[in-house]
């Protein structure tokens, strides 16, 4: 969300739509690109939701968290991204105060749910590797569903309270902009709850995950050498360990690369600074593009998603008992 600690009346007085004269063909290209990105985001995350929901083999704790992330990304593609990109293209907010109020709550909800879900994924992977027996006994799909539901409800209550306390739902709004205006205390709380705490958890736990995965790979290699297994099997074990580490690294790095500029910009750059208008819009757009990138990462690196896509595109999901098909 676009945060500023200025008073709303001050923002209305200081902000004015910059004049941008572009040709009709440029407008068509920009809106076509915005529509294509939004459609790709919606379709990609819908495929993830259908895959995890339909196939019973995929009803695992880790995949339930991926499902939650896909739902929040879907909200971004359906609602947030089209309105934001339209605002960027027009340089002014043209959708009215009602849509602005709706955008504020949906944007805030999707943002906080996404960040906290990635933190839950980090916790899930850490427990699975560090305490596999405890994980298999205590962490069930039901437990994960409860944690996911709590995440969504907490985020909804937190964001609604934050916006309501700072009077972001009143009828007096700037006709040309749609931003979340909060005071200094609320901004500090939001920084801790939505950024510092989850990102600290993500970085620390994924660092431990890499260390544990490396130890497991080293132990497996040592055992194979001790048992004098074939060198080809050793290479397979090495490659599988490296692939798992690379996958975790890509997911974390891509998420942080999209998240960090967004929060740094919203905290450092005042919204009335027209000189950095483009910088602010670029960082917000990059953060939203993470919702587009996530399904692409799944398609490139998750075999179960690749098999699910084949069954969906060949319409085999409509067959009787298709939910019991093997996708692993």
From TrEMBL:
List the keywords (alphabetical).
Cell membrane, Disulfide bond, G-protein coupled receptor, Glycoprotein, Membrane, Receptor, Transducer, Transmembrane, Transmembrane helix
Question: Where is this gene product found?
Answer: Cell membrane
The principal localisation class reads membrane
Tell whether Transcription regulation is among the UniProt keywords.
no
Q: Which residues cross the membrane?
A: 28-50, 62-81, 141-165, 244-264, 284-305
Q: Which Pfam families match?
A: 7tm_1 (PF00001)
| GO molecular function ontology, one term from the record | trace-amine receptor activity
This entry carries the following GO cellular component terms, namely:
plasma membrane
How does this protein sit in the membrane?
A: Multi-pass membrane protein
UniProt keyword Metal-binding, yes or no: no
Q: Where is the G-protein coupled receptors family 1 profile domain?
A: 44-298
Family membership, please give it: Belongs to the G-protein coupled receptor 1 family.
The entry's protein name is Trace amine-associated receptor 13c-like
Species of provenance = Carassius auratus
